[in-house]
Structures are given as C-alpha cells and as structure tokens.
Amino acid sequence: MSQTLFFFIALGTVFQLSCGTQVNVTKDDKLCLFANLMLHFSVSYEVTGNKSQTATFELPENVTADGSTCDATKSTLKLSFGDGHSLSVDFTASGDSYRADLITFIYNLNDTTLFNNSVSEDAVTVKAEPQFTNVTMDTCYSCHSEDTIQVDSVNMTMWNVLIQAFVSNGSKSEQMTSCAADTPTPTPTPAGNATTTAPVTNMTSTAPPPPPTTTPTPPLPTPTTGNYSVKATNQSACLLANFGLRIGYKQGSKYEELNFEPNGTQVTGLCGVNSSELTLESGPVTLVFTFTNDTKKFRLHALNVTVKTSSGSVFFESNSSLSLWEASIGSSYMCKKEQNVTITEELELLTFNVRVQPFAVKKGLFSTAEDCQADGESFLVPIAVGVALLVLILIVLLAYFIGRKRNMATGYESFA
Ligand SMILES: *[C@@H]1O[C@H](CO)[C@@H](O)[C@H](O)[C@H]1NC(C)=O
Ligand SMILES: *[C@@H]1O[C@H](CO)[C@@H](O)[C@H](O)[C@H]1NC(C)=O
Ligand SMILES: *[C@@H]1O[C@H](CO)[C@@H](O)[C@H](O)[C@H]1NC(C)=O
Ligand SMILES: *[C@@H]1O[C@H](CO)[C@@H](O)[C@H](O)[C@H]1NC(C)=O
Ligand SMILES: *[C@@H]1O[C@H](CO)[C@@H](O)[C@H](O)[C@H]1NC(C)=O
Ligand SMILES: *[C@@H]1O[C@H](CO)[C@@H](O)[C@H](O)[C@H]1NC(C)=O
Ligand SMILES: *[C@@H]1O[C@H](CO)[C@@H](O)[C@H](O)[C@H]1NC(C)=O
Ligand SMILES: *[C@@H]1O[C@H](CO)[C@@H](O)[C@H](O)[C@H]1NC(C)=O
Ligand SMILES: *[C@@H]1O[C@H](CO)[C@@H](O)[C@H](O)[C@H]1NC(C)=O
User: Fold this and answer.
1) How far apart are CA 4 and CA 399, in angstroms?
2) 238 Cβ partners below 8 Å, 6+ apart?
3) What mean pLDDT is predicted for residues 71-86?
4) What topology is assigned to 226-372 in CATH?
5) Per-residue buried b or exposed e for 176-188, using 16+ beta carbons within 10 Å of the residue's own CB
6) 233 CA distance to ligand 4 middle (Å)
7) In the chain, which segments carry CATH 2.40.160.110?
8) pTM (predicted TM-score)
9) What topology is assigned to 3-181 in CATH?
10) Which of 75, 116, 161, 174 could pair with 143 as two cysteines, CB 3.0-4.6 Å apart?
11) What is the pLDDT of residues 235-271, one digit of tens each?
12) What pLDDT was estimated at residue 19?
C-alpha cells in the first residue's frame, strides 16, 4: 500500500534534446532517475495474406515518463510513446552497485501508422534481460556503442546510452561506469592499472557493434580462485568453499566459455543438517550449489547455472543428480588439479583449486582435507603392497628350496 503511494509521488519530466530521448524522473521534487538514450526498434508482424512485414522506428524524443518510480532499491523507468507503446526498464540496487533487471517493451499492433495492415490488433509484450549490470552506485552507466537486444520478433538497438538510477542527492553524477564495448582494449590484459579517471566496472562482453570481425577469441586466463563462505545466524562460517571456475556452455550450435569472476561476488546460502546451499552471483552468472549430507559423506548433489548472455537471452541449466566433490562429513574435499566436469549436455565446468566443506565446519576453518589426488593414487597403494608381498613370498620360497637342497646335500654327506 505504502509502495503504491510512493509510486504516485514519483513524477516524470521529459525534456527534448537534439541528441536522443532525455528523461528526468523526480521524486519529492528531486531528481531520482536520469536517462538519455537513442533507441531503434525493428518489429516484424503479420499482415494479411499470411505474410510478415517489418516496422522500423526510433524511440521518439517526445515520450512521457508517467508510471516511472523511484524507491530505495527498486526503480522503474517507463517511457510511453505514440499510440499505446511503452518501454520499461526495471533497476535494482544491491550493495554498492545497481543493475537493470528487465526491459519490457509493449507495442500496440492497433497503431496503423507504425503497423500498417497488421492482422492482429493486440498489444504485444516482449521482455529481455539487458546487459547492464554491476554499475557502481552513484555513477552513470554510459555506453556509446551499439547494443542490440533480440527477442521474439523484435530487435532493439540502443546507443549513446547514459542512465543513472538511484540518484542520491538530487543531481546526476559526473562519474561514469562504462560498458565493456566502449573500453578500447577489453580482452588482452586483465586491466590492472589502466587509466582510471572514473571507476570502470567490468561489463560482461557485449557483442561488438557493427563490424562483426570474427577474430579468434584469445584463450581465457586461468580463473581466479575465489574464497566464499556462508555464515550461520551466529556469525561463524558454516560452509566454506574455495575454487576457480570456468563455465563452458552451448546455446544452439554456439559454444562459449567464461571465467567466473570472484571479485564482487554476492554470496548467500544456508546450512542445514541434511542439505546446504551456496549461491554465488557475479556479473552475468548465478550459480546455486546444493550439497547433501548422506550421514557419513557429503557431496555436491545439485547445481543450477544461469548466465545472462550478451545477446540478452538467458541460459539456464540444472542437474540435481550429481555426485561430485565427495568426502567424509567432518573433513573437507580438496582438488588442486584442473578438473573438467560435464554437468549437462549444454554445460560443463572447469574447476581449479577446489576446497569445499559444506557441513560440520569448526571455528570457521577447513577440517582435514580428502584430496582427489590421493584418491587417484589410493588404488596404487594396494597394488604396491601386493607386489611387495609377492616378491617377499618368492624370496622366502626360494630361500626354502635352496635351504632344503643344501640340507639334503649335507644329509647325503653325513649318511655317507
Ligand atoms: C533481428 O536481427 C536478426 C539478426 O540481425 C535478423 O535476422 C532479424 O531479421 C531481425 N529481426 C527484425 C524483426 O528486424
Ligand atoms: C500460414 O503459413 C504457415 C507456414 O508459414 C502455415 O502453416 C499456415 O497454414 C498458413 N496459414 C494460412 C491461413 O494460410
Ligand atoms: C576487472 O577484471 C579484471 C580481471 O578480469 C580485474 O583485475 C579487475 O580488478 C576488474 N575490475 C573491476 C572494477 O572489477
Ligand atoms: C554458534 O556456532 C558454534 C559452532 O558453530 C556453536 O558451537 C554454538 O552453539 C553456536 N551458538 C549459538 C548461539 O547458536
Ligand atoms: C576488486 O574490485 C575492486 C573494485 O571493485 C578493486 O578495487 C580491486 O582491486 C579488485 N580486486 C582484484 C583482486 O581484482
Ligand atoms: C548428517 O546427517 C546425519 C543424519 O541425518 C546427522 O546425524 C548429522 O548430524 C548430519 N551432519 C551434519 C554435520 O549436519
Ligand atoms: C535428515 O535426514 C534424516 C534421515 O535421512 C531424517 O530423519 C531427518 O529428519 C532429516 N533432518 C532434517 C532436518 O530434514
Ligand atoms: C534448480 O533448478 C531446478 C529446475 O528448474 C529447480 O527445480 C530447483 O528449485 C532449483 N534449485 C535451486 C536451489 O534453486
Ligand atoms: C572438457 O572435456 C570435453 C570432453 O572430454 C572436451 O570436449 C572439452 O573441450 C573439455 N573442456 C575444456 C574446457 O577443457
């Protein structure tokens, strides 16, 4: 109830500017959301005679921002234009960053100026997840490069985007968080001390704009090992997990790999008696690990992986019949070497430096490790012991026969 009240207090003011559509959303007479962007739509729709036609149009400068809302951690930018069309972007703030969760585009096929001869007269809603994450709080998200979102029969291309959600003191920030496509050399060096005039958050690789040069992607560096822990209600860690992770996923015929970035990862989870859960969220990737306690042993039982791809679509795969990272309750599982694990047909993980303990963590520290390397060698031990025993038996037998021969020889001698 109080939320709806808030929504009505939020007011939209729209300015027209020669470059792009500019919107200032205010709450209590203070700027709370700023946006300036250029947007091109390409919509295919059905016309009489069972044919399809494509309408192309720009987001006009003349839009209204009615229905836009600003709240502490949730904001919505809603741009309405023309005859019943609208574009909404939902923003969420968490910690020291914010992101856009969802773009909703509603177009009204009854608008004959845009959709001439359309068979349908309905309003159509399409939703997409934008590549717009991890924007440092109190900075503007800036992306001059073109970014095309393709959903159903709609292509939305935006460029010259400058947006600040969660404006804190009533005026737009001069600080920028640039998108990856704008940064000159996004791949080669793991940007250490590049020119840092403004905080530049790593954006996940957006599809490179116009010239689609198919350069062979350079090999990824080894993923950074992250240390994650889940705390019980009483503040001591109850689940510990360290690992570096690379995710390989297939969408249609396209195979892509990306390294999970531990820096800035949001860690949540819960510790149970029979099952514990670890959720990691970093950039475009969300991982949910479920560990089970089978009385004497624990194992990684289920894994859900969500990747928001650069094209705006969402990749999701899950497997809840895994038996990975197994060790005794009261100890930890360790595997330093690189492991390649197939989760589903479309998803594989490459893990590095794994050490996990999802149950019975004492004093926030790992217990003794059960090493996967030792597992590999453990079958060698019985073989070695067996071989040694065999050799020993042979020696004893040999000694016995030699001794017996001698004895017999001496026996004959004494009898003689
Ligand atoms: C959207 O873009 C794709 C790829 O460029 C193209 O094949 C498709 O026809 C476009 N759709 C519309 C509605 O313009
Ligand atoms: C329209 O085309 C689709 C395939 O493109 C076909 O399956 C359908 O029967 C056609 N409908 C009419 C009314 O011709
Ligand atoms: C961006 O990523 C690189 C390595 O991929 C890392 O070294 C750097 O700290 C990251 N920067 C930010 C702001 O997260
Ligand atoms: C806090 O955790 C420790 C060990 O994990 C446990 O021994 C202790 O009872 C817990 N305290 C409370 C108040 O739950
Ligand atoms: C992690 O990111 C922060 C800024 O977000 C940066 O200051 C720090 O150097 C990064 N650390 C590593 C290890 O990349
Ligand atoms: C594991 O499960 C068994 C049986 O349900 C239970 O007795 C034991 O306390 C559990 N261990 C932990 C660490 O929760
Ligand atoms: C854990 O599992 C055991 C048997 O598998 C069951 O008796 C117990 O109730 C379960 N505990 C919880 C908290 O679910
Ligand atoms: C993982 O995904 C499956 C399938 O969609 C779902 O049923 C399950 O609840 C998810 N698990 C978690 C822990 O989110
Ligand atoms: C993992 O193993 C599969 C099959 O052995 C292989 O095709 C794939 O390239 C490997 N992935 C990585 C990242 O090494």
Assistant:
1) 96
2) 230, 231, 232, 271, 276, 361
3) 94
4) Porin (2.40.160)
5) bbbbbbbeeeeee
6) 9
7) 3-181, 226-372
8) 0.47
9) Porin (2.40.160)
10) 161
11) 789 999 999 999 999 987 888 899 999 999 999 999 9
12) 67
